[in-house]
Design brief:
The protein has helices spanning about 20-30, 30-35, 45-55, 115-130, 155-175, 190-195, 195-200, 200-215; strands spanning about 20, 60-65, 70-80, 85-95, 100-105, 135-140, 145-150. Strands 1, 2, 3, 4, 5, 6 and 7 form a 7-stranded mixed sheet that branches. It is an alpha/beta fold. Helix 1 (about 20-30) runs antiparallel to helix 4 (about 115-130). The structure holds iron/sulfur cluster (SF4). The site of iron/sulfur cluster has 13 residues, from helix 2 and helix 6.
Length: about 220
């Protein structure tokens, strides 16, 4: 934290920040992030709606004190260095001044491993804003009401920063990657826009286009 105990402010002239949530999309599927950031598509499905409902309380800005720990809700965060901005569901401020971001997730731990990187990206923002290291964060799984601690290891930090770099390069290039049909597609809210079963196979895509437009 700086000498006044307040967060550092965002630098004027820093590159346009990418939303933190886009990193989560990118790690889920680069095409999903590209469809949103480059082509402007958006979609809701049962999973996104459930996710929003599980965030409802954490999305109300403000703070409270529970068991001596200050809980900062919906805290806006940024990193000029990484070109990111967004908000943390909850940041806990403990007695010793240490900070711990807590992310709410609707379900159980995901198979796709993007939650930890999203939390780590929040920690990188907080470290830059408050000029202090963060060691741990936590993910609260609404379905099981379980809290899982996530250590910000050098490996997780590197993976997160590499992914942010890859995401920025993809967005700046304006290139939407081709679809790759995979297990994650079933829960993707952009499934009906992406049509991965068709677009991931050029032969299928050509036949579908012929039928549609009678080429
Ligand atoms: S449907 Fe599959 S390939 Fe298409 S954006 Fe979603 S996850 Fe990616």
């Amino acid at each position: 934290m700086n000498s006044t105990g307040t967060p550092n402010s965002q630098t004027e002239g820093a590159p346009d920040p990418l939303p933190l949530s886009l990193l989560n999309d990118f790690l889920y599927c680069p095409r999903r992030a590209a469809l949103k950031a480059i082509e402007g598509w958006w979609g809701e499905n049962q999973y996104t709606v459930q996710g929003e409902l599980s965030h409802e309380r954490a999305d109300l800005p403000g703070y409270e004190v529970a068991k001596g720990v200050k809980l900062l809700r919906a805290l806006p965060v940024f990193s000029d260095r990484l070109g990111l901005s967004g908000k943390c569901d909850i940041v806990e401020q403990h007695h010793d001044g240490s900070l711990c971001p807590v992310e709410y997730k609707k379900g159980k731990r995901r198979r796709f491993g993007n939650d930890d990187a999203q939390l780590c990206a929040q920690a990188l923002c907080l470290e830059e804003m408050f000029s202090r290291p963060l060691l741990y964060g936590a993910i609260f799984h609404a379905a099981s009401k379980r809290r899982r601690e996530v250590e910000f290891t050098p490996q997780l930090r590197k993976m997160t920063e590499d992914a942010i770099g890859d995401l920025r390069r993809m967005v700046e290039a304006g290139a939407v990657p081709p679809a790759v049909f995979k297990a994650a597609c079933e829960a993707c809210s952009l499934y009906h826009i992406c049509l991965p079963q068709v677009t991931s196979q050029p032969g299928h895509f050509a036949r579908a286009a012929q039928e549609l437009f009678r080429i």
